[in-house]
Amino acid sequence: MRVLTHRSAQVVLAFVAAAGVSVCFGLIVQDLRTVSPDEAAWQQLGRQPRADDVERRQARISAAIRAALSDQVQVRNWTLLVPPTLARCAGEAGRIGGGAAARSVIGGTWSGEALPQERWPAAYRAIQPVLGAEGFTSVDVRLDGPAEHRISIDDSAGTTLLLDLDARSTDVSLVSRCNLVPNVQKPVM
What we know:
alpha+beta, TBP-like, 2 domains, eight-stranded antiparallel β-sheet, 4 helices, 10 strands
């Protein structure tokens, strides 16, 4: 499927009309002249959940992952190291409304007891049902050493789960790319 700009669509349609051909080419004609980068970012953000919904979802996912790790591989004594917060977004989305319309949701960092190396495979298996139920699919193994494991797992909604296990602790964090804040009105663009 091809996407044509306004000018190229006019040329194709003029050619087809001049030739007297009435055939469906399966083209999507899109007038890109009227969509600014800010408008495109606003439209993209509008298709995603709002920051408050993301924050609640992240809290639910974090609790489910901590529960799975506690129940199945005995990681205990969870402590909130970094409380949930909102941070300014990068890129076009971060500039909408003077930077106040959208935020990255940082769901906090929870730290539990260290996980012995031999329980790492069981810990990864333990969180799979949560990851599957929540739509996390894209795994990036950042470090997979004998005593340290760092992975990030992304979902299709723009949230990343960071799991960091080493000899000191088991840490769980979630962060979103960018979401509109609650009750934000579309700014003038």
